[in-house]
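hey so i finally got around to running both of the ones u sent me last week. sorry it took forever, my laptop kept dying halfway thru and i had to restart like 3 times lol. anyway pasting them below in the order u listed, first the sequence line then the structure token line for each. didnt double check formatting much so if smth looks off just lmk and ill redo it

first one:
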Amino acid sequence: MNLNLDGKPRENRMLAVGLAVVAAGLLIFAAFSRNWVSRPGPDIGFGPMGCTNCAMFAGAEGGDMSNAEFISLIRELDPVAAKTASSAFSPMGWATFGLSLLGALGLLGAAFLGFTKSRKPLPIAPSTIALIGAMLSLITACVFVATKPGGPGFVGVSMGFWLYGIGAVMGIASAQMLAKLTRPEDPDLVAAMNGSY
């Protein structure tokens, strides 16, 4: 345990706040990124909200489109690819988008409470919202990437997914740290710990 000179546990408040803010930034960036899985050459990339240059790859007009539009287009153009195009790809992208933003908002709220040393009793703590958003988004993000369109080698995991992963793990760690620093004090528990009962 990390102790101060007086023997009390050292408070890592600013570390927790800093980690939460950086994690929230990474989650927000990743939510809007269209480069979670990509392919060099004819540059094509997919993110939770849609894809970049995917219409060109499918031989259609335009460049960017939603993931659902791309899956529909692939199913129309190529019967073989229609069998491998997962219906879960687009909904899991939107679920990841929403949960990432929910986690980021929770982290920013928890960071604010941690920075101001506030211990307000709230119906649900921002750190809890951050944990729920980040942990559920880990599931949806993995399903999103696993159900990417095309066969093996069509697209590979790219920068957006790695930044998301770093943000999610940092977010979970910092939310747990901030939960300890921002939860309201329970007078009965404090009295019990001090031996007043």
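and the second one:
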Amino acid sequence: MKIGWVLCGSFCTLSKAADAMRAMVAEGHDVTPIFSFAVASTDTRFGTAAGWYRTFEEISGKRPWDTLTAVEPIGPKGLFDVLVVAPCTGATVGRLAAGISDTPATLAVKSHLRGSRPVVAAISTNDALGGSFRSIATLKNTKYMYFVPLRQDDPQKKPNSLVADLSYLPQTVAAAVDGRQWQPLFL
């Protein structure tokens, strides 16, 4: 499959996203990385922006797309079979639920959905069961939106935090292409 892969600024999960992308490429999928503004420009204790560019270009063989003009043609040209958003932050979920497409991440999703093609989101946010919950529910009821199964990552210290289990990404993508949500959604 041709997969567009949006990476958002849940910096602590970018290395897991890299592993998941490696696995999908190893299965023979053609993957194009797409960076949110945050991933494209932010250095953190989890890695530098330049390092993430190197990592994802090495995995995919393609320079990550990081501008609005780069991602806008996704829908009109039908560039991908499926769009994966992994990790998908609370900020991105909120923008998508509100219909705001002002970042490469959100415009990529909007453009892809325009063609009635599946989007698979791998939620990773500390406020999933708090401030982002309404937005997640809105997207759950959006046609062509699917979610990688998720769980609380630290119920005692971060009771509102949910993170997708990327080991379920291949099954979730396959189900989404068939128009189904992989179950169970909550682990």
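quick thing i noticed on the 2nd:
Residues 1 and 28 are 8 Å apart (CA to CA).
anyway thats it, ttyl
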